[in-house]
Amino acid sequence: MAFYQHESAIVDDGAQIGPDSRVWHFVHVCGGAQIGKGVSLGQNVFVGNKVTIGDHCKIQNNVSVYDNVHLEEGVFCGPSMVFTNVYNPRSLIERKDQYLDTLIKKGATLGANCTVVCGVTIGEFAFVGAGAVINKDVPAYALMVGVPAKQIGWMSEYGEQLDLPLEGNGEVVCSHTGERYQLTGKLLSKKT
């Protein structure tokens, strides 16, 4: 086995877990899950069948990654954050055929206790603050806080807030890395 599995963890037959990944205490990974290399699944994490988790993701304690949730490379899921997969659940009505896809793009951070309502896409290197509720798509590099979440700024790939307005035209350099970012209208991109 090329990954570490704690003796209390359950990994169902068929699950694919990449090398150097760590599956900690009381984790349950369902058989259809596809998990990349260098992933950390903290204590009491659940991973559904129709889930993909990219390389180097960190999923902290008490997170359930339900069917139709897809994490690209380097996503951080803070402790006890929540994903959903049905928009209008009812115990007495079966809605498994109504699961909505949720996509979290490369490098995004989902803060502790935030909630991501199904059917949204969170852009590359976006940063969702602790306790926020995401109910619509989030642009790349956006800093989102509140209930429901609103954008209050922009974040660098390094994870520091950038000194830019929410919209307009401008350019800024990350003080930690020297990388340059370009704001055009309501979209931020990293210059190469």
Q: How would you sum up this structure, described in words?
A:
By secondary structure, the chain is mostly beta strands. It has one domain: Hexapeptide repeat proteins (UDP N-Acetylglucosamine Acyltransferase, domain 1, 3 Solenoid), CATH 2.160.10.10. It has no helices and 26 strands. The chain has strands spanning 4-5, 10-11, 16-17, 22-23, 28-29, 34-35, 40-41, 46-47, 52-53, 58-59, 64-65, 69-71, 76-77, 82-83, 102-104, 109-110, 115-116, 121-122, 127-128, 133-134, 142-145, 150-155, 161-162, 168-173, 180-185, 187-190. The strands form five sheets. A ten-stranded mixed β-sheet has the order 1-4-7-10-13-16-19-21-22-23, with no helix packed on it. Strands 3-6-9-12-15-18 form a six-stranded parallel β-sheet, with no helix packed on it. Strands 2-5-8-11 form a four-stranded parallel β-sheet, with no helix packed on it. A hairpin with a 5-residue loop joins strand 22 and strand 23 (161-162). It is globular and about 50 Å long. The mean pLDDT is 97. Keywords: Transferase. InterPro entries: Hexapep (IPR001451), Trans_hexapeptide_repeat (IPR050179), Trimer_LpxA-like_sf (IPR011004). Belongs to the transferase hexapeptide repeat family.
